[in-house]
Amino acid sequence: MKKICVIGAGSWGTALAVHLANLDFKVWMWGRPEDGIELIKSERENRRFLPGIVIPDNIYPETDPRLALQDADVLVFSVPSQVLRSVLQNLQPYIPADAFLVNTAKGLEISTGMRLSQVIEEVLGSSCRDRFAVLSGPSHAEEVSLRLPTAVTVAAYDQDTAFYIQDIFMDNYFRVYTNPDIAGVELGGALKNIIALATGITYGLGFGDNTAAALMTRGLAEMIRMGAAMGGDPRTFSGLSGIGDLVVTCGSQHSRNRRAGQLIGQGKKLEETLKTIGMVVEGVHTTRSVHQLAMEMNIDMPITKACYRILYDGEEPRAAVEKLMKRRRKHEVEEVT
Length: 337
Known about the structure:
The chain is of the alpha/beta class.
């Protein structure tokens, strides 16, 4: 029986651990003591991040990295994007040399602007490329843990690795497609969080579905524009990790990014909003990273710019929307090269 170690005990890490345990794998779930690992172990439930879901007996919560990672065949990283580097550095001595590595976090590293695959390669070395994959797509932890039908994408440099990870995760309710475009899949998963924040802000302002549809559509144009400039295939953004993830993140109350946007649109400050959500809101960090990259690369990102001004410059959300609506006239369809 393969041993899989899920690194991270948040809602998504827990949901993936439960999913893999239901496929009869031996699953270890590593987390820090402050993540409540001992309570998860004793109560067989992650009441903080995924309440109501029973933790199967073949999941072994653990704080000792040596025990959790030893002889693991697959490591699934499910930690917030901004701590991925430090987690990798701390766990590096325990990572088996031949283990497959799957990253499921969605974001960019603020301090460097790197995609998370680049962070992993910088810390662990280029020798990990052939064993590395990204799992992304429209997949709320709450629904995956309830075994509701879900489809995602796995991207890898090596085709055989993509097929291997596809076979590990796929079953009758969790369908996995493969894609060779790691950059596009990662960027789709990161950039859509900005648009979800913006959509939430408009709902918080009391605007309707017309506004949300406009933001999602023009937001997709921004995602493609930036994604292509950063090495992604524009076609990827029409798939599950692009428009698929965009739709679910903008449209669902499960979405932390949309909920955070709603609170901000209703007048709450950023600090208060994050405290209310109580979990990481990746779009807040990604907005800062992408806004900086867009300025450096001279890429037009009006929705991202508006989100940045609201989050970090204190601009009133209603005024930011008005500025978007008053932008100069332009043709809808554009070439992406």
